[in-house]
Amino acid sequence: MPKSSPQARERIVAGAADMISRRGLSATSIREMAKHAKAPLGSTYHYFPEGKQQLATEAVQYAGDTVARLLSKELEAGPAAGLGAFLALWRKIVVGTGFRAGCPVLAVSIEEPPTDEIPPAVLAAAEAFDSWEKLLATSLREHGVEAEQAAQLATLVVAAVEGTVAMCRAKRSTQPLDRTAEQLQALIAAAVKG
Predict the structure, then answer these.
(1) Chain-centre distance of CA 68, in angstroms?
(2) What residue spans of the chain are helical by DSSP H?
(3) Angle at which helices 6-23 and 52-75 pack, to 10 degrees?
(4) 9: how many CB neighbours lie within 10 A of its CB?
(5) Cβ atoms of 68 and 128 closer than 8 Å
(6) Each residue of 133-166: pLDDT tens digit?
(7) Residue 177: CB partners within 8 Å, gap ≥ 6?
(8) Contact 83, 184 (CB under 8 A)
(9) pTM for the model
């Protein structure tokens, strides 16, 4: 049995998040996730005895937490800085992968679940989206935006950016991101001034 290693486990989770961001969950097997992470299949089952759904759930949580940490840090400088970092992150991902990768949180959210039950990975995606929205809404409120408007604007930002990432991949262009960025930046500036 392989020795437990937090680094090896995290590498598998990060590799799974990357793989899901490229191919979606349904089109990705646990064997492919292990191979992508350069990990033995046996180690993958050792760390994730419940299989693909456990690994996918942790990959989505990992991606959600990574974005939340970035947002939290950048939002210290205000909502405009947080938005700028959020947009820059997705630009780096879509351009850096030649438009092959998007967001693993979105990827698991849009796939048809195999049963009527909501898979744990989808629940983790909902938690990630909630986390990002709450961080943005809190920053907006701290900068004078009324609570309901802050919540609505935060939802709009997350939804617009996530949808724009998908459009960039489909069009093989950053134009949708550029256009969305300009409009969201104007909305944030107007809300904070108002």
Answers:
(1) 9
(2) 6-23, 30-36, 41-47, 52-75, 79-96, 104-109, 120-142, 147-171, 175-193
(3) 90
(4) 18
(5) yes
(6) 999 999 999 999 999 999 999 999 999 999 999 9
(7) 87, 90, 91, 94, 164, 165, 167, 168
(8) yes
(9) 0.92
